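Mods, move this if it's the wrong board.
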Amino acid sequence: MITGEAGAGKSVLARAFVAEFNRSRTEAEPVPVLLALGDWGRQEPFRDWVVRHLVRDYGSTSAHAAQLMDLGLVLPVLDGLDELDEPGVPLPESRAQQVLDALTGYRSGLEPVPVVLTCRTDLYDVLEASGRPMLDAARVEIDPVEAQEAVRFLAMRQDAVHREGAWRPVLDELRAHPQGVLARSLSTPWRLVAMATAYEQVNDPRELLGARTEQEITDRMFARFIHASVRAVDEEAGYSPERVHAWLHQLALRLQARGGGANTLVLPELARSPGALWARVLYVVTVGLLTLVTLRTFLPDAPQGSLGWGFVLLVVGITVMALMCLRPGGIRLLPHAAMGLPPWRSPLWAVAAKTALTGRSRWGVLVLSVLPTLVLWRTLAPEWLGGMADWTMASAILPTLMLYAGLVAGQVLDAAVIGPSGWPRGGALVALVLLCPAGVLLGLSLRAGLGLGTALPPLVLFGLLYCALCGDTVMYLCWLLVHLRRVPFRLSRFLDRCHAAGLIRITGGVYQFRHREFQEWLARHPVPLTRPTAPARDSATARTP
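Not the wrong board. C-alpha cells:
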C-alpha cells in the first residue's frame, strides 16, 4: 500500500517502482504493469479486468494475457483507489471497499498474489478502521513537503534566481509562516511543481500572497499553469493557451460524464462514452448508406442465381461485422494489436522490421509474403515466364504491398512502446492499404473510358470493408466530426503536444490528465479566471547575454 495526501506523489512513486523493478527484475520474476483503477466494474473479476487492460493497453492477445496472469508473471500496480467513488457513498457500498475485498481474495493457492496499490491516507485510514483492509499488506506513507523543503526547491529552480524581486516575498512568507495557507497549499510535490512551472519565467508569484484559502491559491495557480506550460511548447504549433484550456475543459467534462472516477482518455472508446450517442448514430448511418449504395449499384448488373445471392450475403456479412464494432467487446477482423504504429520517422520502424524478420513471427511473415510475391511476379515478369510485364500496373501495386509490409512489421511492437497516438496512425495506414487498389481501379476505369459510374461500386465496397476492418477508427472520426467545434480534429496530435507541455501524462496506451485535481479543476472552469501577467525581470539580477 502506498498512501499519501492528494498530490503527494503516489502515482509518481508507483511509476518509479515499475521502472526500477523492470530494470532489475530476473527472468523468473513478474513484470510490473501500471493500471488505473477508474474503469474497474463492480461485477468484473479482477483477473479478467487485468487481462482486458493487457489486451487494450499493451497489444497482447486475450489467450496470452490470460496465460501470463495464471502463471503469476504479471505484478499489477494499481493506481487510484481513492478515485473510484463519489463523495458521500456509504463505505459498505463503495467500489473502493469492493476492490479491497477482491484483492484480498486474489490468491494463488493459499498464498496472496503480490499487488501494489495507491490510495489517499484519509480514505485508507477509514478502510482500515472498517475491519476489512487489504490483508498481508505493507504500507508506505508519503510525508507532506515541509515549508523549508519547499523554499529550497523553489530557490533551486532554473531562472527563479533571476527574478529575485518577485520571488523573495513568497520565499519569506514560507519561512515566516511554515503552517500558513501558502505553505499548506504547497505541501505536496504536485502543487509545488505546478506553482514553480506557473511562475518561474512568467507571471507574478506575489499574487498568491493575497489569497485567504487554499482553494483560491489553487485556482490562481492552475490558471497560470496552463499558460506557462503552453507558452514554451505549443504556441508555435498554433495552440494558444485559451484554446488549450477550452479543449482540455471539454475532455475533462467527458471524463466527468462517465462517472466512477474515470481518469483515462482512450481514443477508441470515446465514441462509446455515455455522451456520444450522436457519434454512434452517425456511424450507423454511414454503414447503412455504404451498404445500400453497394447493393444498389451491384445488384442490377449481378448475375442471377447463387452467385448473386452469394454477393448479397457477403455484403450483409461485412455490414454485420461493421456494426459489431458498436459493442466494446465486439468481434473484430483486425485486432487492436495490429493497429498501433510508431511515428513515420521513428527509429522503432527499424526495430519492428528486424523483429518481424528474425523473431518468433518470422514464419508468419514468410507465409504472408507468398501471395504478394506471386502478385508482383505475375505483374513484373516477362510473358515467356508467365508474367504480364506491365510496369504501369506494378507501379500501382507496389505502394500497396509496401504499406501492407508496414502493417505486418508494426504489429510486432507493443502498444505501450508506441503510445496511444499510434492507434490513429494504424487506422490511417489500413485506409491507405485499401485506398491504393481502389485508386488503381478508378484509374483503369477512367483510362478505359468507363466513367465514374463503373468505378463507384468498388470504391463503396472498399469503404464498407474498411468499416468492418477498422470500425473503431471510423467511429472515432464520427465522434470528432460531431465535436468538431469543441475539440481539435487532430486530437491525438494535440494530446501529444499537451504531454510534451506537462499537462497530460501517458500510461500504456491511454492518456491521463497530469493529476486528478487538475482534471476536476478544468471540469469546473470552462475559461481561464484571469489573464496572464508577464512582469519584467529585475534589472539588477537580469541575465547578461
